[in-house]
């Protein structure tokens, strides 16, 4: 089983992707999708990715982690809507919006898991108003560019309290 | 416009609102691209277009075709997933490229490399 | 009645999107630096995919969806390649 389907989650998502692309759940689409999913997993085996954590991706399957993941995705959705509004106000210079001063922030991180860091980078960059710029592996300090610089301390706290803790729960 | 003639109002209203919201956000984002000063400020503007902007339009499309064809049309989810995954990657790649170029030219706009 | 309203809303969305395409186009032409142009080009890809989706709703055909998917796919690859070019001066090493 392990040899036939080394990445069950990836195989399932590939199958789902194929069915969405075909926009059907007919036996033909299912069969071809399954073949493609198996082939895709083979490619990933050949690439030899590092394991996703102490327990691998299978750890995500536990109920507690699944709940944490759903909570995280909900937080990201809320944050995206909120920051879209904030950035739109800055762009349109709505009266009452602060005259935006932008700048770079150095944020020291405690997280070391590469997948967790990648997730953090994607979340920060996908929400308008913050862009992950650089990461210094030796010092474990990341460089962030923010459009609305309140003050440096506050941004460090937002990143660490809001995202880093949740991601560390998930990945470490 | 085939099929739009017998469009019920409860469908027409949310789809129209979602379309207008998405297009409006796209306009806001691209105005930001024109108006903001400096590359590092402008990097934030396309994120508005490619998160909520395209999200609203895709939601409208999903809703419209699902009701019109009386079955679930979900393949717009593919674009949503794809855009959500690729937008941060392109923005990060571009910012890093810009940072690299600015550092090479010793621009004082960006923080220097950490001392070691 | 609701069809007329809907038609106007779709038309308005299309006009807004075309207006939204003009700004990045201006940025592509004006620069000032290469990274600004690439960023604007990436935004153009996304907005044109949105325009195609609205076209699909207007004509009631799902065929435009495939074109929109292709544009987002190719846009990502193109921008990634351009960013790599800006960094290294060549795409394939």
UniProtKB/TrEMBL annotation, chain A:
**What's the protein called, per UniProt?**
Na+/H+ antiporter subunit E
Highest taxon, organism lineage: Bacteria
Source organism? Falsiroseomonas frigidaquae
Record key words, sorted: Cell membrane, Membrane, Transmembrane, Transmembrane helix
Similarity comment text for this entry = Belongs to the CPA3 antiporters (TC 2.A.63) subunit E family.
Report the membrane topology from the UniProt record: Multi-pass membrane protein
Record localization = Cell membrane
UniProtKB/TrEMBL annotation, chain B:
- Pfam families, alphabetically? PhaG_MnhG_YufB (PF03334)
Q: Output the superkingdom of the source species.
A: Bacteria
> What InterPro entries does this protein's entry cite?
PhaG_MnhG_YufB
Assigned keywords, A-Z? Membrane, Transmembrane, Transmembrane helix
Spans traversing the lipid bilayer: 12-33, 45-66, 72-94
Query: NCBIfam families, per this entry?
Result: CPA3_mnhG_phaG
Q: What is this protein called?
A: Cation:proton antiporter
TrEMBL record, chain C:
Q: What is the lineage of its organism?
A: Bacteria, Pseudomonadati, Pseudomonadota, Alphaproteobacteria, Acetobacterales
Question: Could you identify this protein by its name?
Answer: K+/H+ antiporter subunit F
Which InterPro entries does the record associate with it? Answer: MrpF/PhaF-like
Localization, per the record, is: Cell membrane
The residues that cross the membrane are 6-26, 38-57, 63-87
| Record bears the keyword Protein biosynthesis | no
Tell me which Pfam families the record gives.
MrpF_PhaF
Concerning its family, UniProt says: Belongs to the CPA3 antiporters (TC 2.A.63) subunit F family.
Chief place where the protein resides = membrane
Keywords associated with the record: Antiport, Cell membrane, Ion transport, Membrane, Transmembrane, Transmembrane helix, Transport
Note the topology in the membrane. Multi-pass membrane protein
Q: Which NCBIfam families match?
A: PRK06161.1 (NF004812)
């Amino acid at each position: 089983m392990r040899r036939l389907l080394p990445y069950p989650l990836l195989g399932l998502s590939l199958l789902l992707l194929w069915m969405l692309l075909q926009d059907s759940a007919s036996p033909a689409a299912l069969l071809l999708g399954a073949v493609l999913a198996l082939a895709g997993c083979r490619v990933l085996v050949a690439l030899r990715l590092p394991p996703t954590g102490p327990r691998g991706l299978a750890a995500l399957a536990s109920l507690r982690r699944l709940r944490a993941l759903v909570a995280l995705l909900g937080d990201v959705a809320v944050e995206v809507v909120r920051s879209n509004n904030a950035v739109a106000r800055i762009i349109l210079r709505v009266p009452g919006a602060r005259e935006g001063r932008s700048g770079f922030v150095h944020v020291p991180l405690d997280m070391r898991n590469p997948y967790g860091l990648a997730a953090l980078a994607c979340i920060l960059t996908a929400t308008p108003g913050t862009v992950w710029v650089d990461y210094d592996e030796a010092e474990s300090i990341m460089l962030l560019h923010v459009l609305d610089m309140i003050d440096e301390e506050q941004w460090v706290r937002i990143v660490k309290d809001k995202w880093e803790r949740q991601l560390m729960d998930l990945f470490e | 416009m085939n099929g739009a003639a017998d469009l019920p109002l409860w469908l027409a209203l949310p789809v129209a609102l979602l379309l207008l919201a998405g297009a409006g956000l796209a306009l806001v984002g691209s105005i930001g691209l024109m108006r903001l000063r400096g590359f590092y400020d402008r990097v934030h503007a396309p994120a508005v277009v490619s998160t909520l902007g395209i999200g609203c339009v895709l939601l409208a499309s999903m809703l419209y075709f699902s009701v019109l064809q009386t079955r679930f049309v979900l393949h717009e989810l593919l674009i949503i997933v794809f855009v959500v995954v690729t937008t941060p990657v392109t923005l990060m790649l571009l910012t890093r490229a810009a940072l690299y170029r600015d550092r090479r030219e010793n621009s004082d706009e960006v923080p220097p490399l950490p001392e070691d | 009645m609701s069809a007329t309203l809907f038609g106007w809303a779709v038309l308005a969305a299309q006009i807004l999107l075309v207006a939204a395409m003009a700004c990045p186009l201006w940025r592509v032409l004006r620069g000032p630096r290469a990274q600004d142009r690439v960023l604007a080009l990436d935004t153009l890809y996304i907005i044109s995919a949105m325009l195609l989706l609205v076209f699909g709703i207007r004509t009631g055909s799902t065929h435009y969806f495939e074109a929109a998917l292709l544009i987002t796919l190719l846009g990502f690859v193109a921008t990634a390649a351009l960013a790599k070019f800006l960094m290294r001066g060549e795409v394939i090493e």
